Amino acid sequence: MLRAGVIGLGVGEQHILGYRAAGVEVVALCDMSTDKRADAARLYPECKIYETAEELLDADDVDVVSIASYDHHHATQIVRAISRGKHVFSEKPICMNEDELDDIRNALKRNPRVRLSTNTILRMSERFRDIRRRVRAGELGRLYCVEADYNYGRLQKIMTGWRGEIVDYSVMLGGGIHMIDLLIWMVDSPVIEVSAVGNKLCSVGSYFQTPDMVMAWLRFYDGTIGKVGANFGCVYPHFHKIALYGTEGTFENGIGGGVLIRSRDPQAPPQSIKSAYPGMAKGDLIPGFIDTILGKGKAAVEELDVFKTMSACLAIDKSLRTGKPEVVETY
Ligand SMILES: NC(=O)c1ccc[n+]([C@@H]2O[C@H](COP(=O)([O-])OP(=O)(O)OC[C@H]3O[C@@H](n4cnc5c(N)ncnc54)[C@H](O)[C@@H]3O)[C@@H](O)[C@H]2O)c1
């Protein structure tokens, strides 16, 4: 019987539901906010409530830990959890830079029994699962170009919240990562080269310091090309826009709905895709992750997937700094 702990009680509260759905007992919670700890003591009387992440990570009665703290706290907490032999389900991004990614990779090498996954949750979206099944079944032919936009639509959150306080906050790591993961999963081939541009015109006058709009082109190992945008300032509802172009068909997830186009005849109406969007809850990857730990199945986001996606995002951020195309580091 596995016992879980959760650090950070924002989206972390949804992880609690994921563990419960997997039949895992949540025994420990942590938040650095006094108010959050008081709420947690009331809502989850069965749990030990910790003030610091370190105390929870060192607790002997926790086997698997969810890390849902602020982005720039993840890497240190992940490395500590792994070195204590605890399995880790971390919010994205698992870290902020290449050095931290190396630290996590090395910690896993030293503790090969520990499993790691991350919450790139769009893999559980009913609509995207439906489309991936169709792609794999060949309904779109061979994919040759894929595009995705993470339209955040919550400018205030970066102008006033914790994201803006992180001096090197990355919108690609903070949101675009979902789209990169989705595209790698759809194409079934890693991104090997990227080139990025960005600007900061929407968040002027705030303490947010880095580009709030980043766009990158992508080259996949199998020859597919693509484009991804992390658009944090848009006047748009929070939305995951994608277009998959194949030799036999095109899928688009647009604000008006999902459509599949499988004819070059301009009179042929597009087929409406009715599967639910987003059609998932934030803790939905957790049961599959627990199955992996127990040796009963395969997580939807495996360790290698985490590293492929992180490496592509970090290469995009590097390209923004260098102004040149960048090769994605192998993982
Ligand atoms: N996968 C997704 O779809 C998704 C959605 C939202 C947020 N996130 C990620 O989840 C993480 C948390 O974001 P959020 O929206 O829940 O933020 P939030 O501000 O709503 O909640 C974060 C909570 O964590 C606590 N916290 C932060 N750092 C801590 C630390 N070191 N130790 C203890 N407590 C700590 C804060 O006090 C706060 O209560 C971020 O990494 C974010 O990128 C992912």
Write the layout of secondary structure elements.
Layout: E1 3-7, H1 12-21, E2 25-30, H2 34-43, E3 48-50, H3 53-58, E4 64-67, H4 74-83, E5 87-90, H5 98-110, E6 116-118, H6 126-136, E7 143-151, H7 155-160, H8 162-165, H9 171-187, E8 191-199, E9 213-220, E10 225-231, E11 239-246, E12 250-254, E13 257-261, E14 271-273, H10 286-293, H11 303-322, E15 326-327
Parallel strand pairs: 1-2, 1-4, 2-3, 4-5, 5-6, 7-10
Antiparallel strand pairs: 7-11, 8-9, 8-15, 9-10, 11-12, 12-13, 13-14
Nicotinamide-adenine-dinucleotide binds next to loops.
List keywords for this structure.
Dihydrodipicolinate Reductase, domain 2, Rossmann fold, 15 strands, 2 domains, binds nicotinamide-adenine-dinucleotide, globular, alpha/beta, nine-stranded mixed sheet, 331 residues, six-stranded parallel sheet
How would you describe the overall organization of this protein?
The protein is α/β, with parallel strands linked by helices. The protein folds into two domains: 3-114, NAD(P)-binding Rossmann-like Domain (Rossmann fold, 3-Layer(aba) Sandwich), CATH 3.40.50.720; 122-280 and 309-327, Dihydrodipicolinate Reductase, domain 2 (2-Layer Sandwich), CATH 3.30.360. It has eleven helices and 15 strands. A hairpin with a 3-residue loop joins strand 11 (239-246) and strand 12. The protein starts with a strand and ends with a strand. Nicotinamide-adenine-dinucleotide (NAD) binds next to loops.
